[in-house]
Amino acid sequence: MSKLLGYVSLGCAKNLVDTEVMLGLLKDNGYTITENLIEADLIVVNTCTFIEKAKVESINTILEVAQYKQDGACKGLIVAGCLSQQYQDELFQEIPEIDALIGTGAWDQVMVAVDAIEHGNRSCIMENITNIYDERMPRIQTTPRYSAYVKIAEGCNNGCTFCIIPKVRGAFRSRTIQSIKTEVERLAAAGVKEIVLIAQDTTSYGIDLNDGKPLLTNLLKELTAVDGIEWIRMLYLYPTFFSDELLDLIVNEPKLCKYVDIPLQHVNNDILKQMNRRDDRSDIERLLKKIRNAPTHITLRTSIIVGFPGETDEQFEELCDFVKDIKFDNMGVFTYSQEEGTPAGAREDQVPEDIKEERYHTLMSIQAAISEENNRNLEGTVDYAMIEEIEEGEHNTLLAKGRLKSQAPDVDGNMYIEDCGDQIKPGDILKVQVEQGFAYDVVAIVVE
Hints:
One of its GO terms (molecular function) is metal ion binding. It is found in: Cytoplasm. This protein has 448 residues and is an alpha/beta fold. It folds into three domains: 3-125, Rossmann fold (3-Layer(aba) Sandwich), CATH 3.40.50.12160; 147-377, tm_1862 like domain (pyruvate-formate lyase- activating enzyme, Alpha-Beta Horseshoe), CATH 3.80.30.20; 379-446, CATH 2.40.50.140. It has helices at residues 13-28, 52-66, 68-71, 82-86, 88-94, 110-118, 165-169, 177-189, 216-223, 244-252, 269-274, 281-292, 313-326, 353-377; strands at 3-9, 31-33, 42-47, 76-81, 100-102, 123-125, 147-151, 153-154, 173-174, 194-198, 231-234, 259-265, 299-306, 330-335, 382-392, 398-404, 415-417, 429-437, 442-446. The strands form five sheets. A six-stranded parallel sheet has the order 2-1-3-4-5-6, with helices on both faces. It has a five-stranded mixed barrel with strand order 15-16-17-19-18. Strand 10, helix 9 (216-223) and strand 11 form a beta-alpha-beta unit. It is globular. 43% of the residues are buried. The model has no long low-confidence stretch (mean pLDDT 90).
């Protein structure tokens, strides 16, 4: 009789890839995935610990899922990922419903955890923080069939003072170009049209394989040759290794989305230094100027932290002026989260929560106005769009929801086509003209 498996994957896309590998291993061992957690015999929760809100969400999710041991069919609860790695002792002690904890490098040991559960034992598997999945691992794709994340490296060496990732994910380590290409070929054969390349620091890809010199452009040249892949998008491009060669490739290679995601975090030089970032304001401005002056428009996304310890009103104002000046197409803003075990977390000059929240809303409102202006400027322009859902619109019409090539999955806005007819299907890539731009979304029509 088939055993039913339920799962919840929290946090970033990098975590989702680990979840998909665990699902693949469990499926190979007789489990069938169910979306209805109440009927699942085994439930896996893959957790996040990046910021305080993520920890709270992870703990609340574990507690909610633990109820299925009483109210549902659940006989085993496995908690994996970053929260497990960081708080293994506390989790086992505080939440007795947890049957197994799996660390960030031990997802390949999920069947060891299952075996322990079947023998009535609790297990904590944390070794092998140097692990990284490769093309030989089974993987169940949980994203839509036409779009998949591919993790090209794991861990991080940057040592930002606000970040716990190196402690829970280990040192930076890259997969080989051949391993990644083989996986992308397999995804293309399964119908994937868009791949999104991810790592903690994507521009550093290959430095551990090539005497400190990145290999990202070498990798991209191999991946653009894969038949069936139409869009290649990159996230988390740390500014230090963002080379002219990479920019030229983005501009000139049709399969590469004209989309650059650079997590800058701040722009004030003192704050950048205290964050242990390698680039100062002049480096950042020089890079952004190059991207803005490229011969084709490149969509620019960033993420910013407000309320870093010691951040003054003047430093925050400098950040606001910078954002107004650059006019990022998309921006994520985070309030600084005081993380245990980080240098910034130990500082005594923490910014009060109410001031952090106020700064967050101020910067978000600045960006909302910029995004609306940017999207209005798109009116009349032609782009390609990927259709993701067909919904019922008004008056028995059909509404297509999707993304422009300049919009990344999950983090950016959406594109809508009203009264789209029944010829359009999810996964289609269509040529569209933007008719209306709003703060986060656009409305478009199909053009021949």
